[in-house]
Amino acid sequence: MFSPLTALLLLAIISTVTSTANSCLPSELKALQAIKASLREPNDGIFNSWTGTDCCHNWLGVSCDENTRRVADINLRAGTLYTTFEKARKPGYMTGQISPEICKLTKLSSITITDWNGISGEIPKCISSLSFLRIIDLAGNRFSGNIPSDIGKLRHLNRLSIADNVITGGIPRSLTNLTSLTHLDIRNNRISGYIPMGFGRLQYLGRALLSGNQLHGPIPGSISRIKRLSDLDLSRNQLSGPIPESLGLMSVLGTLKLDTNKLSGMIPKSLFGSGISDLNLSHNLLEGNIPDAFGGRSYFTSLDISYNNLKGPIPKSISSAAYIGYMDLSHNHLCGPIPKVLDHLDASSFEVNDCLCGKPLEACKKK
Ligand SMILES: *[C@@H]1O[C@H](CO)[C@@H](O)[C@H](O)[C@H]1NC(C)=O
Ligand SMILES: *[C@@H]1O[C@H](CO)[C@@H](O)[C@H](O)[C@H]1NC(C)=O
């Protein structure tokens, strides 16, 4: 039999062993504590759960790899965490900054810190050294500064979203090295400069959402080499030059938004016989006739070419389109009769043109 003293000693040893087993890597614990210290979240009490030494257990928004017990995901989305804290029903709000200590979590696979409205400061530059990252989602905050210029080092990155922040500077050229990227969303920032010529290297991209920035220069033709791209939104920038004809030859492109730019030249024929069903080219400097290129493959839930300098008649071939749910041709210089297939549309779809006539506008004058 053990003496009481030995028993106590044994107990002490066992509890030390178990508490070490239930603690995360000290450097990761320290990094998380630094992250907590640089953020403030008054409503939900998220950081009240960040206590003790086992950051892998019951720390809201932190999860670890089961085998290695290394921190793998940080997932703090406003509005989704408070259910465990029934007392707080206020909208999510978090202020402060993301500590660069986050880069000591070297096995991180995802960082999702979204919709807190108040988190500011720069995206830590060192983030591009986290080589296991698959997801960066920082949308809906007040992040400023530039996209880290060597972001292209993140070879496994699938998803990059920094939408709805106040990010400035250009799209780094290295971004075209993110060849695993499937989802890019940089909407509504203050990003300027050109879309990199090599954008088409992002072969796995399904959605490219770049609207609401200050991008200028041409639309790189290389975009049309992205075979899986289904949704391209470049609207509300200052892009100029022609619309590449090749955009209409992309196999799965369904949504194309180029509205509110300075695009000029003619509307490429190819766009009307493509798989694009949601097309917005409004508020540009497009000129010439509307191409007479509608056909059985033209299927539009929405087609908006308003606010351009288009002239001539509404093409006859529009009668052979498979479907036109909504169309806006207003604020151009079009002239001539409105084809019957469009007479279900509102008069506002045709207003402010040179001399369109017929239902839903006034009847055409017989010559
Ligand atoms: C892209 O990656 C290649 C190969 O690693 C590298 O040589 C090149 O400098 C990178 N491009 C940019 C713009 O970072
Ligand atoms: C097309 O874009 C313009 C300008 O950005 C916008 O006002 C309009 O609502 C859009 N059209 C459709 C059908 O969504």
UniProtKB/TrEMBL annotation:
<keyword id="KW-0808">Transferase</keyword>
<protein>
    <submittedName>
        <fullName>LRR receptor-like kinase family protein</fullName>
        <ecNumber>3.5.1.98</ecNumber>
    </submittedName>
</protein>
<dbReference type="InterPro" id="IPR001611">
    <property type="entry name" value="Leu-rich_rpt"/>
</dbReference>
<dbReference type="GO" id="GO:0016301">
    <property type="term" value="F:kinase activity"/>
</dbReference>
<keyword id="KW-0378">Hydrolase</keyword>
<keyword id="KW-0418">Kinase</keyword>
<feature type="domain" description="Leucine-rich repeat-containing N-terminal plant-type">
    <location>
        <begin position="26"/>
        <end position="65"/>
    </location>
</feature>
<keyword id="KW-0433">Leucine-rich repeat</keyword>
<dbReference type="InterPro" id="IPR013210">
    <property type="entry name" value="LRR_N_plant-typ"/>
</dbReference>
<keyword id="KW-1133">Transmembrane helix</keyword>
<dbReference type="Pfam" id="PF08263">
    <property type="entry name" value="LRRNT_2"/>
</dbReference>
<feature type="signal peptide">
    <location>
        <begin position="1"/>
        <end position="19"/>
    </location>
</feature>
<dbReference type="GO" id="GO:0016020">
    <property type="term" value="C:membrane"/>
</dbReference>
<dbReference type="Pfam" id="PF00560">
    <property type="entry name" value="LRR_1"/>
</dbReference>
<dbReference type="GO" id="GO:0141221">
    <property type="term" value="F:histone deacetylase activity, hydrolytic mechanism"/>
</dbReference>
<keyword id="KW-0732">Signal</keyword>
<dbReference type="InterPro" id="IPR032675">
    <property type="entry name" value="LRR_dom_sf"/>
</dbReference>
<keyword id="KW-0812">Transmembrane</keyword>
<keyword id="KW-0677">Repeat</keyword>
<keyword id="KW-0675">Receptor</keyword>
<keyword id="KW-0472">Membrane</keyword>
<dbReference type="Pfam" id="PF13855">
    <property type="entry name" value="LRR_8"/>
</dbReference>
<dbReference type="InterPro" id="IPR052941">
    <property type="entry name" value="StomDev_PlantInt_Reg"/>
</dbReference>
